[in-house]
Amino acid sequence: MREGLQQWDYVLAAVAIGVIGTLLLVGWSLVGMARAERRRDKVRGK
After folding, report:
1. Residue 46: strand, helix, or coil
2. How far is it, in rounded angstroms, from Cα 45 to Cα 41?
3. Can you say whether the dihedral through the CA atoms of 20, 22, 25, 29 is positive or negative?
4. pLDDT, tens digit (0-9, with 9 covering 90-100), for 14-41
5. Looking at residue 41, what is its pLDDT?
6. pTM of model > 0.90
7. Residue 37's closest CA among 4, 23, 29, 18?
8. Membrane-crossing residues (predicted)?
9. How many helices (H) and strands (E) are present in the chain, helices listed first?
10. How far apart are CA 36 and CA 32, in angstroms?
């Protein structure tokens, strides 16, 4: 059993949070962009 926490546990956790956050932000942006394009097409009568 380890006595103390190692720095790599924190580093890996920070990287995981960063990657997950980035992927969520990209997904949210893509969904918002698709919604905006649908609204634009609806207004233009396409």
Report:
1. coil
2. 6
3. negative
4. 999 999 999 999 999 999 999 999 999 9
5. 94
6. no
7. 29
8. 12-34
9. 1, 0
10. 6
Q: Is the pLDDT of residue 3 over 90?
A: no
Cα–Cα distance list, 16 to 8, 29, 39, 42 (Å): 12, 20, 35, 39
- Tell me how far apart the alpha carbons of residues 43 and 45 are, in angstroms, rounded to a whole number: 5
- Residue 33 phi/psi, 5-degree rounding, is -65, -40
Task: Give dist(CA 35, CA 30) in Å, integer.
Answer: 9
pLDDT at position 6? 84
- Cβ contacts of residue 43 below 8 Å, gap of 6+? none
pLDDT band, residue 45 (cuts 50/70/90): confident
